[in-house]
Amino acid sequence: MQDKPEGWQSLLFGDQDWSFIPEIMLRTLVMYIVILASLRMLGKRGVRQLSVFELVVIISLGSAAGDPMFYKEVGLVTSLIVFIVIVSAYKITAYLTGKSKKVEAVLEGTPTCLIEDGMFAISNFAKESLAQDEFFAELRLRGVAHLGQVELAIIETSGSVSVFYFEDEDVRFGLPVLPELYKKQSREITTNAHYSCSFCGYTRLIGPAESCACPRCKKDTWVPAINKRRVS
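RE: above sequence
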């Protein structure tokens, strides 16, 4: 009966001995090649834009590749069979999504409009698990300073956000997405100026008043609006 390794040997190599290291290297190299071949079979879309079910495929491939790299009892052939099943299932699923819009909608979802005509599409925004701060960050990365610059914003099935802008001459006052400006929220209007609803982005010229409810969403918190043009 072989004694179990102790001390640093146990910490560094676990229950394996030095003799298993070359085999680990060979197993890892084989699975590396198999992963590359599998991703190549998935096609360019499977690598560049992952939908939900494509992400499941990638995770499954990673799991199937990991075990035979480290465990002696897991053979390479069984892992190859798993790879073949996963890639085949992906191909069949991709075929079905290409043939049926209903299947495609179920597996990949559909694009959702989040901003329309410079305001939040409230009902659609509530359907997405996307925090406002996260969405504002996405807009800032695209050079957006306020919603008045945005004609349309759509979250794609891949999770990326597509933004369509107003022409410079059509930019209007809108809700700022810059952190320092958005923080200037108030329920009391003290000056005559353009203000945007902090919840839905509805913008209007408001005079001094103690309180003013948004006619679109009935919220009463406002942010001073800006009409700065985009810098491209």
